[in-house]
């Protein structure tokens, strides 16, 4: 397929969706990077910062939210391949005494349960106090709150388990906070350092890093905007670019670029980060039950899949964190990938917009 054919069959329809995100959905801006067999196309619409008219650019750093989970799962699976840990090890084995009380038992929850969202642990972000802090007008007073991972786990444990481990699916950020703590225990280094050593440096992802205690970006970036969950079209927007993201940790704290995300997913699906056995574990999908978050998708180990309207099945993850929505998916062989981001957190979530972008970007006959 020539570059001209790529432009005709991919660039134009993807650009049309990006334009629609701004003109029809009211987002400040949207970007997408499409890769196919080593070729790259980047498109943008709207603005990176209200009041300036500044265009969105490929080198912009963005908060990628739950796409962090795929990085976390990749590190866990690398450690499993090295026999440092086993997917059927219990949480109690690695984090003794942490999952106790209120009917919880870390002896019954395995690492596999964590990565597949089948632990039954309550999602700490859905706690009433956390919702008050981060999903409404009080966000502006709390967006610089700092959290330790153990504090996030404690919030989860204040709620009873949703089900017995392994018997159901429920998307919970608590699972990946625990996975991050297990990485630290198993490697003897911080989660951030483990990520850097095992993924970021080997792939040359120079614009990807854990926000940690930084509230500002380390390089060029888009501004992030929130309507504080108000659904009215004319609700005021607030600049929430600066943020303490420690409430995300190994479940949503990562900063990256569309280019770095594309490189990561292409390497992962292309078999360059995991041995075949561990990649197969990650890609073994179970359909999400009706009525659950991610309904219509299937979920493996830190990775989800969905069939596009054009019949192509893609694998990846979506992400949301204050002021940002992102999506990263690609074909099973990693030959085609698409990374996209909108710098506004309304739309709850704009999944249809992302699916429309993927449907134009990923070609079934490529």
Would you mind describing this structure in some detail?
Its EC number is 3.1.1.103. This is Serine hydrolase domain-containing protein. Keywords: Hydrolase. It is an enzyme of class 3 (hydrolase). The protein is an alpha+beta fold. The protein has a single domain (3-50, 59-361), classed as 3-Layer(aba) Sandwich (Beta-lactamase), CATH 3.40.710. The protein has 13 helices and 16 strands. The strands form 4 sheets. A 9-stranded antiparallel beta sheet has the order 3-2-1-16-15-14-13-12-11, sandwiched between helices. Strands 4-10-7 form a 3-stranded antiparallel beta sheet. A two-stranded antiparallel sheet has the order 5-6. A hairpin with a 5-residue loop joins β13 and β14 (313-321).
CATH class: Alpha Beta
Mean pLDDT over all positions = 94
Going by CATH, the architecture would be 3-Layer(aba) Sandwich
What would you call the shape?
Answer: globular
Major sheet summary line: 9 strands, antiparallel
One letter per element, helices H and strands E, the order comes to HEEEEHHEEHHHHHHEEEHEHHEEEEEEH
Distance N to C terminus? 8 Å
Count of domains: 1
Strand content: 15-25%
Number of helices: 13
Helix content: 25-40%
Q: Would you report the number of β strands? A: 16
Radius of gyration: 19 Å
Might you state the CATH topology name?
Answer: Beta-lactamase
- The CATH superfamily is DD-peptidase/beta-lactamase superfamily
Secondary structure class reads: alpha+beta
Strand line-up of the largest beta sheet: 3-2-1-16-15-14-13-12-11
- The unreliable regions are 1-5
């Amino acid at each position: 397929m020539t570059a001209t054919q790529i432009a005709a069959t991919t660039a134009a329809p993807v650009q049309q969706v990006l334009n629609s995100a701004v003109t029809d959905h009211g987002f400040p801006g949207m970007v997408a990077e499409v890769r196919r067999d080593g070729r790259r196309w980047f498109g943008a619409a709207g603005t990176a910062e209200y009041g300036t008219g500044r265009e969105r650019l490929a080198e912009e750093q963005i908060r990628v939210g739950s796409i962090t989970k795929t990085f976390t799962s990749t590190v866990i699976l690398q450690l499993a391949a090295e026999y440092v840990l086993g997917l059927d090890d219990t949480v109690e084995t690695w984090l003794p005494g942490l999952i106790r009380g209120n009917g919880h038992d870390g002896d019954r929850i395995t690492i596999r349960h964590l990565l597949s969202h089948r632990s039954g642990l309550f999602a700490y972000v859905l706690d009433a106090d956390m919702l008050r802090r981060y999903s409404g007008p009080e966000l502006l007073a709390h967006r610089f709150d700092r959290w330790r991972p153990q504090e996030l786990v404690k919030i989860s444990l204040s709620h009873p388990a949703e089900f017995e481990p392994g018997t159901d699916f429920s998307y919970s950020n608590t699972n990946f906070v625990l996975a991050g703590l297990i990485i630290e225990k198993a490697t003897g280094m911080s989660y951030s350092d483990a990520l850097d050593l095992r993924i970021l440096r080997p792939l040359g992802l120079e614009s990807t890093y854990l926000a940690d205690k930084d509230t500002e970006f380390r390089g060029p970036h888009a501004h992030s905007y929130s309507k504080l969950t108000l659904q009215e079209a004319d609700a005021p927007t607030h600049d929430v670019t600066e943020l303490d993201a420690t409430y995300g940790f190994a479940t949503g704290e990562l900063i990256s670029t569309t280019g770095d995300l594309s490189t990561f997913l292409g390497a992962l699906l292309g078999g360059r980060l995991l041995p075949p056995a561990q990649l197969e574990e990650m890609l073994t999908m179970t359909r999400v039950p009706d009525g659950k978050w991610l309904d219509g998708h299937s979920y493996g180990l830190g990775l989800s899949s969905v069939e596009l309207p054009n019949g192509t099945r893609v694998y990846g993850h979506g992400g949301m964190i204050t002021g940002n929505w992102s999506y990263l998916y690609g074909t099973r062989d990693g030959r085609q990938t698409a990374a996209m981001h909108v710098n506004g957190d309304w739309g709850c979530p704009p999944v249809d917009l992302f699916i429309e972008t993927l449907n134009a970007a990923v070609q079934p006959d490529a």
